[in-house]
Amino acid sequence: MRPALSQREDAAAADGARTLPAGPLLLVLTVVLLVALMAAVASGSTSVPPAEVWHVIGRRLSGDAPRPGTDDLIVWQLRVPRALLAAPVGAGLGLAGTAVQALVRNPLADPCLLGVSNGASLGAVAALVLGLGTGGALGLGLSAAAFAGALATYALVWAVAARRGGFAALRLVLAGVAIGQFLSGFTSCLVLRAGDEQQTHSVLFWLMGSLGGANWDLLAVPAVAVPGAWLCLQARARGLNALLMGDETAAGLGVDVGRLRRELFAVTSVLTGVLVAVSGAIAFVALMVPHVCRLLVGGDHRRLLPVSAPAGAVLLVVVDIVCRTAMETQELPVGVVTSLLGAPALLYLPDRRLGSDS
Q1: Hey, CA dihedral for 230, 259, 98, 188, is it positive or negative?
Q2: Is 44 left (phi over 0), alpha (psi -120 to 50) or beta?
């Protein structure tokens, strides 16, 4: 069975010869990401020269006492954790979108289709409006509530999708959409219950995605979850390739389709829950990044997954810079900018490529 699958993958790789080689592209993306991270730390309402950025980071890493002044506060306490949070969140969204599109064999799918994002949003809004979280807005209490909502939704969608012993893609999608919309209705009711204008603003800002609550404590979980999810998905890259050929073909090639779908659903749900918990619901990144990366390296997941992660990281770091610098008086929600970029980008992508990947 394995040689047949390898032959199919080799054929896909040959088709990808018209695209870019993954190795050099990964190197370019890594360099661009480092430059974007430096720009994210140096830019903002108060500009900090790159030399001073390196000086502050160097003193902190070496254990020296920080110099008095605002530069250390701006660079180390505010901008460095925010940039370092944007990178794994963007990378995780790129990975989750790539996996979900293979999971349900739908190029228009993203983690929102599974309802997990809606569950996380409901948990976060409940924490803000009802005071269920112990931390402040965008703090650890909110993140814990959002993650709890994501896990509860994951368990509910799983139970509904597998209630008759199967785990078909169509049943999974229907369960995710139905439950997600049901939870979205509850979220809207809670938003209407917000006690004051400031609370409503905080809820809506979080629902549109925000990295404004980034701090060093929030970095630990996504820094572990995103690489862990990538390793799990990369180990199943051949299975993802087989799923795109159809369930019967994948089963004929030796893939346990039901088990693979359960594993992919578990990984993408937990990953999505972690990401939404720390950044809110950021639209279009998980949908757009896999399509762009397929245009660059083709549809073979052995190459697509490693490229999707840094591409998503670069996109979100750059978008966050725009959100912080586009307006002088206030910060734009990240989801607003990703939607403004994502909708035209998806309309521009050639139908020929989308059709060949589905």
Answers
A1: negative
A2: left
pLDDT-flagged residues of the chain (< 50): 1-2, 7, 10-17, 134-138, 352, 354-358
- pLDDT at res. 88: 96
User: Do 289 and 314 touch, CB atoms closer than 8 A?
Assistant: no
For residue 99, CA distances in Å to 96, 177, 232 come to 5, 17, 11
State phi, psi for 282 to the nearest 5 degrees. -100, 120
Return d(Cα 293, Cα 268) in angstroms, integer: 19
Cα–Cα distance for residue pair 147/271, rounded to 1 Å: 10
Res 90: pLDDT: 96
Residue 222 token pair:
């996504």
255 φ/ψ sector (left φ>0, alpha ψ -120 to 50, else beta): beta
Angstrom distances, CA of residue 288 to CA of 35, 47, 146, 303, 327? 22, 31, 24, 17, 25
The SS3 assignment for 196 reads coil
